[in-house]
Every structure is written in C-alpha cells, then in structure tokens.
Write a structure and sequence with these properties.
Elements: E1 5-13, E2 18-27, E3 30-36, E4 49-52, E5 57-60, E6 62-67, E7 69-70, E8 73-74, H1 80-92, E9 95-102, H2 107-117, E10 129-136, H3 158-165, E11 170-175, H4 180-191, E12 195-198, H5 205-213, E13 218-219, H6 235-242, E14 247-251, H7 259-269, E15 274-277, E16 289-293, E17 296-301, E18 304-306, E19 312-315, H8 319-330, H9 334-337, H10 343-348, E20 366-369, E21 375-380, E22 383-387
Parallel strand pairs: 1-4, 1-5, 6-9, 9-10, 10-11, 11-12, 12-13, 13-14, 14-15
Antiparallel strand pairs: 1-2, 2-3, 5-20, 7-8, 16-17, 17-18, 18-19, 20-21, 21-22
Bound molecules: zinc ion.
Length: 392
C-alpha cells in the first residue's frame, strides 16, 4: 500500500460543490476524507505525505473509455507489456483508468487481445488502472466504417461474441444498432450488464429510439462515423442530441469535431450527458511522421492521423487536452465540466460506486491541474504515479 497522502490548498471539485480551498486525505488506496477549508490537524501522523496544491485544481482522475493505443502499442497487439506502456503514458495525461479498446478484426484476433488484458487488469505500476475492454467493431455498418476495416465488418454472430463476453473482460461493446442481428447481441449484453454504444452507424432516429428501448445507453464518438443531423431526418446525431437516455462520447481534439459542434452537444445534453474520450491510437505520444497502422500506412501531421485517402484513423489526443479544448469550446467552468472526464464514464460502465468523484470511500484516483489544464500530479489508488510539480 502507498503511504497516506494529504492534498491541501486545492481548488477541489467534490461531488457536491467546488471548494477553494479544499483538502483530501487518501489512505489504503481510497479517499479517507475530503472537505472544504483547511484540513484537520494531522500532527500525530508523521507518515502522511503532504502535497500543498497551492490553488491547483483537484479533480477525479480521468477515465478514458475509448482508447486503442499509444507510444507504439495498441490493444490489438495482445501484449501485456504494451498495455502497461500505454497505461504509463495515459497517467502522464491525468488518466487513472481506461478501457483497452479493440477494433474490427477477426474473432480470434479480438479474443487474443482480451486474453492479454486479463493478466494486466487492475492497477498497473506507474500507470493508469486497466479497467477492462471495450470492443469497437466488427458489428458495424460498412457505410460508416471510417478507419475500421470494411472488409471485416459483419453482422453480429452471437456465438462469436459470447466467446468474447465469456472472458469477463468486456465492459463496453460498440455496434451499429440498425441491424436485427446486432440488436440480439444488444439484448445479450444488457443481460450481462455490459454497456452498449451505437457506433459507426447509419441508424435513423427511430432505429436509435428502438435500440434505446432495449437498453442502448451510449453513442460512440458523437458526430463521427454516424448518420448526421437533418431537420427532416434527425438521424443518429439527432437521436443522441434529443434522447436523454444516451450519453455521447466526444473526441474533443478540434480535428474530429468543430468546437461549435462540441458546444452544441454539451448545451443539448448538459455536462452529465457527455463523455470525453480520446480514440487515441498507436501513434499517440510519438513524433509526427509516417507509421504503419495494422497493414496500412498513416501520416501523422498537425496532430491528425490520416489514411492515404485523407480519412481520419483515430487520434493523438490526450484527455487533458480534450478537457482544455472542451472548456474553450463551451466557455463553461470546470465546476460544470469535470464530470465529462471522469464521473460520466464511471457511470456508463457501472463503476460509479467506486470511481469518478471525490467522495470518501471511493478509490483515490486523482488529478491536479494547473490553471491552463496541464497535468501536475496523477494519483492512482492513492499512489502518486506522475508528478510534474517541480517543473512548474
Ligand atoms: Zn470508431
């Protein structure tokens, strides 16, 4: 267990209010206490490590539900060491928990990726915690494939999918809800408490409504690879904007989505209805240039990852930058926006009892941000895994 940790003089965003100053005590991996003003006198506790936050923003650690890779690795590589390297990179950007996200591939390749997650699950030394798997594809609509391999996109095969779900690693599964076979899998996921997201879809408003009635609760990278909004055909985007049951993922990199569209999404859903994700791929955290992404070449330039045809192939986004972009796009304060990078994600995958907000009893997953939103300290399970205070 890490030593007990006291963070004081923070601008603390708690579940009930933001406190300036506020304090938080982490002990045994959990939040032992949190409150406004100055902390109680812990004079009898020489074991306490104290961090004077000097007014920095203290938020719940970020949770990235949709992230494929970073620093040369990807979930589809099916290598535990690669997952650990990813976890360490994400922690530098404030992430304390993530779902390793697969993409369209053969059933066996996806199963191998899930088997690599099992030994890595939970705390990763020096990194974000691996919370499980997110299966994005292959049960998508080829008409909205984006960078997913259209040749391998297919209708849901319940037997194949049960093999994945039986690993117990899957917390989120993304599918196109306009196909009957896929709706059968949606039902199976709901029975197993696995969250389902509408992804790479050409679903009409009515088709999304029907899927919501069966338990669909999320939309994958809202606006990207989905039927757009039209005033006579509201499409998938219209359903995300209109239906309160759906929480919309958002890639807030200013490349996948215009800042005005980000503002429209947050204004329509409220901050509780939006989940920041990165959709980052292998090249995140690497220098710009040309890289191989599965069997295709991609070019990374000005932060964008593009296929030879110009289409986007994931991002190089980090969640700290996403939150900075969302603040600028919406003009809203952190007091409103903090759930978009933590609590909403924890809720979406059924982990809000232990993660996602600064409350006593929850896991001590924390991030300290400077006024510009850059990460100064990341704490996972009460342990400081990243610290850049000295360089400020
Ligand atoms: Zn996608």
């Amino acid at each position: 267990m890490p030593p007990a940790l006291l963070i004081h003089n923070a601008h603390l965003y708690s579940a009930v209010a933001d406190w300036q100053p506020g304090w938080l005590l982490a002990e045994g991996g959990r939040i032992a206490g949190v409150g406004p003003g100055q902390p109680p006198d812990f004079a009898g506790r020489p074991d306490l490590r104290r961090i004077d936050a000097a007014g920095l923003d203290l938020l719940p650690g970020f949770i990235d539900l949709h992230v494929h890779g970073a620093v040369g690795h990807e979930a589809m590589d099916a290598e535990p060491d690669g997952l650990r390297a990813m976890a360490r990179f994400y922690a530098r950007h404030g992430v304390t928990g993530f779902l390793a996200t697969t993409w369209t591939a053969s059933g066996d390749a996806i199963l191998r990726a899930l088997h690599a997650i099992r030994p890595t699950l939970g705390l990763v030394p020096g990194g974000a915690a691996l919370l499980g798997a997110h299966i994005e594809g292959p049960y998508l609509n080829p008409a909205r494939c984006g960078a997913q391999d259209a040749r391998l996109i297919r209708r849901a095969d319940l037997n194949e999918a049960r093999g994945w779900l039986d690993t117990g690693m899957v917390r989120l599964l993304a599918l196109a809800p306009e196909f009957d076979d896929n709706l059968m899998l949606l039902d199976e996921c709901v029975r197993r408490d696995v969250a389902v997201s509408a992804a790479h879809t050409d679903a009409s408003y009515e088709q999304v409504q029907a899927a919501v009635a069966r338990g669909l609760r999320q939309a994958t990278h809202t606006f990207n690879a989905m039927r757009p909004f039209g005033h006579r055909d509201p499409g998938t985007v219209g359903a995300v904007l209109a239906l309160p049951e759906i929480t919309g993922e958002l890639i807030a990199d200013n490349i996948h989505v215009h800042p005005a569209a980000m503002k429209i999404l947050v204004d329509a859903k409220g901050p509780s209805g939006v989940i920041l994700i990165t959709d980052a791929v292998r090249v995140a955290g690497l220098p710009e240039g040309e890289y191989r992404l599965d069997d295709r070449l991609v070019t990374v330039r000005d932060g964008a990852v593009r296929l030879p045809n110009g289409g986007l192939a994931g991002s190089t986004l980090t969640l700290d930058r996403g939150l900075r972009n969302l603040r600028l796009a919406t003009g809203r304060p952190l007091a409103e926006l903090w759930p978009t990078s933590s609590l909403n994600a924890a809720r979406a995958i059924g982990l809000a009892a232990s993660k996602g907000s600064l409350e006593a009893g929850k896991d001590a997953d924390l991030v300290l941000l400077d006024p510009e939103g850059h990460v100064c300290v990341t704490v996972v399970g009460g342990e400081v895994v990243y610290e850049a205070l000295a360089t400020r």
